[in-house]
Amino acid sequence: MADENALKESPTPSQPTDRTELIDRARIFLNSPQVRYEDPSAKRRFLAEKGLNDTEIDGLLQELSVNQSPLVPPRTYPPPPPSNLPGLLIGIIRLFSWIIGGSTAVLLVYFRFIYPRLIKSLEARHALRSHQTDLLKRLNVSLESVKAAQKDAFTLLPQPQLCREDPKYSSCHSLDEVAEVAGDSRDIPSLTILRCAIEELGSQNQLESTEAVFKLIETKLPWIRSEEGGQFATKLWETLWSTPVFEQKEVEGTNIWAYRSLSPPPPPPLLSSLNSLRSAIEDPPRRAGRLQRTMQTLSDFTGYIASQTYTMSASIHYNGSGVSAILAPEEEDVRREIRALKGLVLNRYGRFLYTFSVLLTHQWD
């Protein structure tokens, strides 16, 4: 039995030949145009039914995939999905509609409420600027007219004196005299100090050089060497070089200073004419008014009445209780008449003074 089974299981010599033919036929079958593009699972199932094992089927399918040209899409395929372009276009249109609507609303609000206020503000600013410009132009015109009027008026006035010196130092010719006049005060004009120093050096027959002038000033006025005097020394230096009354000249190779007083400017013609007219016209004599004697008499009479009234009041005797003594009827009548006359005179005197002042005013006019 074992031998029979072995004989049955052992392949016959013609079996490999049949197997090779079967594989060749399967290869030809798979390469045919009708089967080449069929489903691989259907091919595998068909070859298995024809008696090929899985190893042979896998080998044939691998050979087919290697030798197979690029797949051509099947002639029948499912319909493509619907396009998203309409929805995209609708979304874009909706977005643009929202943008246009919002922009329109914003522009409407802007031109309805904001733009008019901006225009009013700009117009107000423009009007204010125009008003300020007009005011500045008017101010410039008025300033120019005032300058022209001042220039015309100043030609008739006397010109101010340059380098005018304080009158209390004008008689000083040395620094000692200046110190004596100034006393403890240090507020001395720099022009006076320099003039007196130059004149003092000239009286001593010394050269009025810059070093000699400042050395003499420091000797006579020691407070200039202090810290506070340093600023004053700088002021002296500036005055010496910038004031036209001090001029520098060279003598024997040394620069010396000289003081040259400036002559006052000539008076303008109008001032000369006014002075000559004033000197030609005599002052009017002061004449006494015709009512002056009457006024003097009334003043004397008022003073007499006042003195008599105070004398009579002082002559009244008081008793011990402080009550005035009883006067005689004649004295009481005189006292009453004096008081009435005094009041009448004072009342008339005030009115008379007013009338007299008016008359004097008319007489002088």
Helix content: 55-70%
Q: What is the overall number of helices?
A: 13
Assess the beta-strand content as a share of residues. under 5%
Alpha-carbon Rg, integer: 69 Å
**What are the secondary-structure elements, in order, as H or E?**
HHHHHHHHHHEEHHH
Structural class, by secondary structure, is mainly alpha
Reported by name, the CATH topology of the largest domain is Arc Repressor Mutant, subunit A
How is the main sheet built? 2 strands, antiparallel
Separation, N- and C-terminal Cα atoms: 187 Å
Low-confidence segments: 1-14, 317-323
Short structural summary:
Residues 18-63 form the Peroxisome membrane anchor protein Pex14p N-terminal domain. The protein contains 13 helices and two strands, in the order ααααααααααββααα.
Polypeptide structure, described:
By secondary structure, this protein is mainly alpha-helical. The chain has 4 domains: 14-67, Winged helix-like DNA-binding domain superfamily/Winged helix DNA-binding domain (Arc Repressor Mutant, subunit A), CATH 1.10.10; 97-154; 169-259, Winged helix-like DNA-binding domain superfamily/Winged helix DNA-binding domain (Arc Repressor Mutant, subunit A); 289-309 and 330-365. 67% of the residues lie in helices and 3% in strands. The chain has helices at residues 2-9, 14-31, 33-36, 40-49, 54-67, 85-154, 175-182, 190-203, 210-220, 227-242, 269-280, 292-314, 329-364; strands spanning 246-251, 254-259. Helix 8 packs across helix 9. It starts with a helix and ends with a helix. Residues 1-22 are annotated as: Disordered. Residues 18-63 form the Peroxisome membrane anchor protein Pex14p N-terminal domain. It holds the Pfam family Pex14_N. InterPro entries: Pex14_N, WH-like_DNA-bd_sf.
